[in-house]
User: What shape does this take?
Amino acid sequence: MNRRDFLKCLGAGTATVSAATLVGCGPRRNPSGGEAVSAVEHLSEGQMTYRTHPLKGDRVSLLGFGMMRLPFKGSDKSGKNSNEIDQEQVNELVDYAFAHGVNYFDTSPAYCKGFSERATGIALSRYPRDKYFIATKLSNFSPATWSREASIAMYHNSLKELQTDYVDYLLLHAVGIGQGMQEYEDRYVKNGVLDFLLQEREAGRIRNLGFSYHGDIRVFDYLLSRHDEYKWDFVQIQLNYLDWKYASKNDGNTNAEYLYGELERRGIPAIVMEPLLGGRLSNVPDRIVARLKQREPERSVASWAFRFAGSFPGVLTVLSGMTRMEHLKDNLLTYCPLKPLTDDEFHFLQETATEMMKFNTIPCNQCNYCMPCPYGLDIPAILSHYNKCLNEGNLPVTSENADYRRARRAFLVGYDRSVPKLRQASHCIGCNQCSPHCPQGINIPKELHRIDAYVEQLKQGTL
Assistant: This one.
């Protein structure tokens, strides 16, 4: 999509999602129902932007709360996070989100070590059921859950944990990963599970049925080719200003421009995941920070990514995994109300993405699908530290660098602080139980061995 097409899309709207409406973002509860809206209402600052589902009439906050990175209580002595979610903090975040107009909450049986649905259910059950939308997923990744009985049991357990008798948005989770079409068919088709979910939608226990996509584009294209039969109510895709044109080069996924265009062409609402690429677009290299701040000094770096994702009218909601209150408040500032990108700003972000591609970061989104490692490694923390040092200029490539000693110390000291020694890359044996689960297609053992070799060179002073 070029800049002219982007502006045309923004101006004319689409058949997918009706134009945004704005409702008070002050301390009040937002109703989830509402009539389809045909025009944008430009109201005063402090108003949540909403999108209306073209078929169902769901009036959804443009900011969706991703319950994927909920706060846990402390850490134990080994450096591992506690298995107990801090429910008090979760409730506080949900209450603040509710009070400021957020009404879409996305979870999964796989999130937060399996405890996200329960924490989400506890937090939301304090509100009237018709005041919010719950999205969860059939996350039957393990072959042990591919049977009809096991998959249906997972679905029923989700209802139990969420304390509800229906799900507003149910997703086939991460189709396209692993073995592509074969894995999709084993998880959902051969066992009759997709037929079961279609029946549940017919019965009203699933209000909207869709899927989230990663990996093999043949699966995405195949499922859309069956749209007349399955009548997908929505599709969740990874969309951000780096992946718009560079996903295939950056992480082996499919460019968001293609994914969004295919959904828009069929009138299927898009739900956006990874608008920040797991935080990578809020922790960008200093040169990129300066570039963004020069343009908008008062706005956060992250706000650019959220504005990009929300500016497409076919997007129903943009998910953000908000662990801390400052994340939530900053996102609310961006979407209360949304200030859509101009043609010039869209072009500016595409140039920014081109600049970012010059940095050889590892495309880890910290989704934790690779975890737990059977040998105890903290894979996301290892990759995150490497990326952080690369972005901050603390990744010396040779001892001849003028700043070598400072950068060397910053990397090694930061590594030991970020990742306990027993969980560092040196303990990877290359079993490769992690890579098949990575939505970004990272060859994780290869990257861990590369990082470990680099660490040893720094320690020995042999760069």
In short: The CA atoms of residues 405 and 457 lie 13 Å apart. The first strand starts at residue 18 and ends at 24. Residues 444-460 form the longest helix (17 residues). The two ends are 44 Å apart (CA to CA).
